[in-house]
Design a protein that fits this description.
alpha+beta, Lipocalin, 5 helices
Length: 310
């Protein structure tokens, strides 16, 4: 009987101690997620950036080489030089031998009296003067035109909270589904063997892949609506909101903004889920980074899912 009383006293004291610890944890202020190194390490750039081909620089235009104009003086000299006319054949008629000058009648010429053909060459034609050769003027040196740098694309405006507003669909495919399964298996392996199976089921249940996701932004109020039922709404950088699902599980939710990142923190009985939403530069792709921390997990579980704007 005495031993039973002692056991009841020890159990009561233990419960009081646990209750005191629980109240102390509830009163403890939540850690600021913006100081989390993991949140800072999340890249805000595009996961698969498009690399524009470098513009081909056009070759500088080359001015045509000026042709030498003919010298008008040389052309005039060429026109004034007339071609020599051919020498006329002159037939001379010799006077009759022994006839007094002017008294005898001229004897008709016969073929035998004709002047014998001469073998002397005909007088050579005078050489035609050639126009003076005109040397072309050297072509002026052409300096290459300065290269013109292509115009740089305009820098897109910075991402704001309002840019997250919209409907999205999951586009991560089988590769990201396999990555999530591997992350759950790695986290479950950190648990004691006795509760490893339970932990694996719990992690799978609380980390589903939502095929659709909607973010509603109204002023500074942000509501994230997941396909699996989570739809808490919070004021960015505002107070913590208490939210419960249809099974009565209670959670504390906060929304924080850091640069172009939208950070959501969901605290439950089993741990804390930190989600970082990142928009691509063209505001068409949404990458959702998740981190799960729990007292029983020595290392947090992380994974990411890709969505595209509908």
């Amino acid at each position: 009987m005495r031993s039973q009383r002692r056991l009841a006293w020890f159990l009561g004291a233990g419960l009081l101690a646990l209750t005191g610890c629980k109240n102390e944890l509830d009163d403890k202020p939540a850690a600021d997620p913006l100081e989390d190194p993991w949140v800072n390490s999340v890249d805000t750039g595009d996961e698969e950036p498009m690399v524009a081909a470098a513009p081909v620089e056009a070759a500088p235009p080359v001015a045509p080489t000026p042709t030498a104009e003919p010298d008008p003086l040389a052309a005039a000299d060429a026109n004034d030089t007339a071609a020599p006319e051919p020498a006329a054949a002159v037939l001379a008629t010799p006077a009759a031998a022994g006839s007094p000058s002017g008294s005898a009648k001229p004897k008709p010429a016969t073929s035998s009296d004709a002047a014998p053909p001469t073998n002397e060459p005909a007088a050579a034609e005078p050489p035609t003067e050639q126009p003076a050769s005109v040397e072309p003027e050297p072509a002026p040196s052409v300096e290459p035109a300065p290269s013109v740098e292509p115009a740089k694309p305009a820098t897109p405006p910075p991402i704001t909270i309002a840019d997250f507003n919209g409907n999205y669909r999951f586009v991560g495919g089988s590769s990201q589904r396999a990555d999530l399964e591997a992350a759950i298996e790695d986290a479950a392996s950190q648990l004691p063997a006795a509760i490893r199976g339970i932990g694996r089921k719990r992690l799978t249940k609380t980390n589903p892949i939502d095929n659709t996701l909607e973010i509603v932004v109204t002023g500074d109020k942000v509501q994230t609506i997941f396909e699996t039922g989570f739809d808490a709404a919070c004021v960015s950088d505002g107070p913590t909101v208490h939210w419960s699902n249809n099974k009565g599980d209670a959670y504390k939710v906060r929304i924080r903004v850091k640069g172009s990142k939208l950070v959501q923190i969901i605290e439950g009985d089993d741990g804390v889920k930190t989600t970082v939403f990142v928009l691509s530069a063209d505001k068409q792709k949404l990458t959702v980074h998740h981190k799960i921390t729990a007292d029983r997990l020595p290392e947090p579980m992380t994974y990411r899912l890709s969505y595209s704007r509908k």
